[in-house]
Each structure stands twice: as structure tokens, then as C-alpha cells.
Amino acid sequence: MPISNHEQKAQPSLSRRAFLQLLFGLLWVLSTPVAPAAEGSGKVFRAEKLVELDQAITAAITNGDTPGAVVWIERQGTAYIKAYGQRAVIPAPEPMTTNTIFDAASLTKVMATTPCVMWLWEQGKIGLDEPVSKYLPEFVGQGREAITVRLLLTHYSGLPSGLTRRDFNGYTGAIAQAVSERPNPAPGKVFRYSDVNFILLGEIVRRVSGKSLADLAREKFYEPLGMKQTRFLPPEEWKREIAPTERVGGVVLRGVVHDPTARRMGGVAGHAGLFTTVADTARFCRMLLNGGELDGRRVLKEETIKLMTSVQSPADGSARRGLGWDIDSPYAGPRGKVFPIGSYGHTGWTGTSLWVDPFSRTFVLLYANRNHPTGGNVVKLRSVVATLAAEAVVDFDFSNVPGALPLRETAPNP
Fold first, then answer.
1. Of 312, 315, 319, 233, the residue nearest 276 (C-alpha)
2. Which domains does the chain have, with CATH numbers?
């Protein structure tokens, strides 16, 4: 329940109003045995910080940064979950709900492509330091042979940020264009976040596994993890629960991937195309924190989780990246100002973001529909929400975290 303008101006305190806001904010107790929400919330989260978080999201909606949002903050089996604003503005207003399905955009990279690559790596079918040309033989010449799977995953390949030509036809046309892109500068020298990297990785998954990325991700991850509302190409019956994005060609996109390249590829691509909910993403994050297992179902080895969420980029690089995952780069705004370096996450163009802190065993999801019907910007809000979420954590000293990486200068968050 969004707070009123009067409440936005009030100073947050541990008052009856704050307590009621927490109840209306759906402070859930999940499957992990903990105290009842009303009694146990103070053991996990500080109420006054959650009130500030509510106010920050409500202010962002009021300022036009996004029509709506859903937040999910979880630690030790207790989650603060709340929907704000509107899921749709046009053609008719619809309230945001906690079970809204979002176009995950680039979260596809870490919730579909990266885990599938790492599963194939566990099977011995992909080598991280093998050249991409081993799996895509046509990817040769003009320095391409020096690009490894690891360099694609860490965005140090030197390839352009997107396909340089858009006059391709369908999935096969996009792959043909992707393999024709050449590195500049040389591979391993410069961090450049690139959709091309993950378009190529998605094709590697397809060729090596013999299955589409969508099918392999569903079979190896979403079904075993109980992620029932996560998939590429969502069915028509999901449409009414999906947050629409922009208007394209006079039609508001709803249930059709927003990313133009992924859309022209048929909706299944390594860089974009996945749809999901905060509840399903929370299950995925729990799996990560549990070392690759959830509810007795193991999907990746613990050492694989540690590998892909630790720094794998060149030591002298300007950005510290895991395999797929962001750790400390210009895009790491969703870490906020409190979570330690060594936590990890990712963002999506449509307004989605997730951040996982293995030290405090906390994760923060902020899913916003910021580009509906046009514009919007949640870069600042992501950082504010993460900062307040960390400040809300009780009984954890973020100022002294063994194993955290030292702070260093990075470029401003884009």
C-alpha cells in the first residue's frame, strides 16, 4: 500500500505508523523457520530503514522515474516484499502487484546464459579459456581467435556493445552478424559491456548442448528450482500479469521482449528475452546463497557458484567482473554504498536489478517498469534502495567484512 504524501514528509520512527507500514508491506516469513513476522522482523531488519525505503520508492514514482516497482529484500528466511504504483499506465491504469511478471532484459545474462554455460563447463563440454572459435568455427580472423569464453563472460572481449548492423533476418541472421564483429581494442585489454558477447554465448550453449537456450535453462534450472513463472516466450495466458514496456509501431509491448535485437531473433537470445517475477528470482538468489542447491535440488556445484561470482576479469582491468556477474564496475550501482565489494549482481534495461551479498546472506531485488510507456530512470533509486536495505540489516557489521575486496576508483555509474 503506497504511503500518502503526508507520510512521505513525516520523519521515520519506530511508531505505530511504521509498524503498520511493515505489515502492509508484506513482511513475509518464508520456509525457513523464524519468528512470526510482526514479532521477528526487528531481529532481521530495522523498521525505520524500511520506512525510508518506502518513501524513496514512492518519491521516485511521484517524480516520474518509474510508474511502479516491486521490492524484495531477504535475509535469514525473512523477506520484505512490497508493490508500489502502477503496473500499466496505458491503455488503462493497472495497479502494480507482487506477482507481476517482468521483462527481465539483461538479467537474462545471469539467470539463463551464464548458468547454462557453467553447467556445460561442469560437464566438461565447454572450457572457459578455450577460444570461442572452438565452438563457433566461423569466428576467426582479425583477432577473433584470441577471444575466449572467459573474455565473453567478463566483457573483456573487445567486441562492440551491440550488433553494428541491424539489417539481419531472424536468429540465424543475428548470429551471422555477431560472428562477423571484430574486437577493437585487442581482447583482454578493455572492459566494454557487450550484448554481442552474450549473443555468442547463447549460440555456444545451443550448439554444444543441442538444445535452445530456453529449453536448457528451463530443464536444468527453472523446473528444478520451482521457478514456475520464468521463461522465454511467455504464453498468452500470462499476458495480463506481465508489466508492459514501450510502445513500438503503435502497439504497447506486453509479453514480447522489449530488446529490439532479441525481438528480431525470435525472443530467445543470450543477452535478453527472459521473463520472470520477484518470487522466482528470489528462489534463484537463494540457490546462489546456498551454493547451487535449493530445497534438496542441486543445479550447480558449490565451487561453480564461487567461481562465477568471484573476480575473473584481468587483474589490471578497469572493472572487476565475475563470470557474467558484476562485482565492481561502472554498472555496480545496485550494490549501493554499504554492501561490500565481493557482493555481486546485475541490472536489466527495462528497470530490473538484483544484488546478492554472500557475506551477510542478504539479497535485494528491485523490479521497476521504468520504460513504460516511455523514458524513466531508476539508476539512482537502485543505489538508494540497496543502501537502505543494507542499513536495515540487524546484527551485521558491514564496516569490517573478512574476505571483502578493497575499494578502488571506478568510472561514474552510467
1. 233
2. 1-100+277-290+330-414 (no CATH), 101-274 (3.40.710.10)
